[in-house]
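Please decode residue identities from the backbone states below.
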């Protein structure tokens, strides 16, 4: 699977986790140069607190277009640190 935005590949891996219609990429598959930590947080009642990244590519920014769970609840710990995308980021095989 690949995550692409604004003509730039953000992540690629065969070891993704698909959950609730989202594809979570392992941390080592990410192009970290394209991700900037934000202050945004949300609470999922069954996964925990999500933190967000702004995606940067080809001189453009896509605010809060990626998220991850640094400390998910125990029953879903397999997604710890994995990153999912939305807001126009294409995820494709």
């Amino acid at each position: 699977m690949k995550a692409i935005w604004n003509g730039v590949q953000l992540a690629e891996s065969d070891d993704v986790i698909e959950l609730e219609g989202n594809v979570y990429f392992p941390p080592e598959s990410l192009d970290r140069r394209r991700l900037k930590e934000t202050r945004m947080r949300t609470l999922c009642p069954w996964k925990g607190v999500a933190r967000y990244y702004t995606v940067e590519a080809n001189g453009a920014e896509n605010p809060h277009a990626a998220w991850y769970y640094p400390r998910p609840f125990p029953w879903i710990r397999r997604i710890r640190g994995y990153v999912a995308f939305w807001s126009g980021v294409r995820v494709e095989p």
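Observation: The first strand starts at residue 2 and ends at 5.
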